[in-house]
């Protein structure tokens, strides 16, 4: 019921913007608790890691989330939609093989307005506690991907995000990540995991 209400609000932009402004006022623990009520005990996320290696130093795409007071900057992406059915009752169709990749492509299209390809899994991160949003456990799938049209059109469109959830879009040089108030799971991925997974790209 509450999940359906949240999805209904998201389909009405003026109401969605108002809800995001109100959400930003909530203390972190209350926001995390409500996220657990509206969502579920586990949130499964698909996260886009888009790095332009044609520039020196390489740059990564970051977005500023309008609903976070702390850790507002991070990587784009979103959560897998709730699967119909009940976890306590038999039945229900299996999800498609590419449910995570499809989630990632949908979220990037909705929030930023461009298509991605070359989607490749880099890391799965199970996160029990997030200071900015204490609440549901997170299972985040980090995917390396690329904008279909290349990074040049992306830079031109960066000033105009399509979703009220996104305040700003920016290509950020990896060595300057410390200048941004990063969402802690994304900060850990970019500073610790990325150098290990993609040598030469670490910030």
From TrEMBL:
Its cofactor is Mg(2+). It holds the Pfam family NUDIX. Residues 41-195 form the Nudix hydrolase domain. Keywords: Hydrolase. Signal peptide: none annotated. One of its GO terms (molecular function) is hydrolase activity. InterPro entries: NUDIX_hydrolase-like_dom_sf, NUDIX_hydrolase_dom. PANTHER family: GDP-MANNOSE MANNOSYL HYDROLASE (PTHR43046), MUTT_NUDIX FAMILY PROTEIN (PTHR43046:SF14). This is NUDIX hydrolase. It comes from Marichromatium purpuratum 984.
């Amino acid at each position: 019921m509450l999940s359906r209400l949240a999805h209904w609000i998201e389909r009405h932009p003026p109401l969605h913007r108002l809800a995001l402004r109100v959400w930003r006022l909530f203390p972190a623990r209350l926001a995390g608790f409500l996220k657990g009520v509206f969502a579920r005990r586990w949130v499964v996320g698909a996260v886009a890691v888009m790095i332009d290696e044609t520039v020196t130093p390489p740059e990564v795409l970051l977005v500023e989330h309008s609903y976070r007071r702390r850790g507002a900057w991070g990587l784009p992406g979103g959560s897998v939609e709730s699967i119909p059915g009940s976890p306590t009752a038999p039945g229900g169709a299996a999800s498609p093989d590419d449910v995570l990749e499809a989630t990632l492509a949908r979220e990037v299209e909705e929030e930023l307005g461009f298509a991605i390809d070359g989607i490749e899994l880099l890391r799965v991160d199970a996160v029990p506690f997030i200071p900015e949003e204490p609440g549901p456990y997170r299972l985040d799938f980090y995917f390396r991907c690329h904008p279909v049209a290349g990074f040049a059109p992306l830079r031109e469109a960066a000033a105009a995000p399509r979703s009220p959830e996104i305040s700003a879009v920016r290509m950020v040089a990896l060595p300057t990540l410390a200048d941004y108030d990063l969402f802690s799971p994304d900060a850990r991925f970019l500073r610790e995991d990325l150098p290990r997974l993609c040598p030469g790209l670490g910030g």
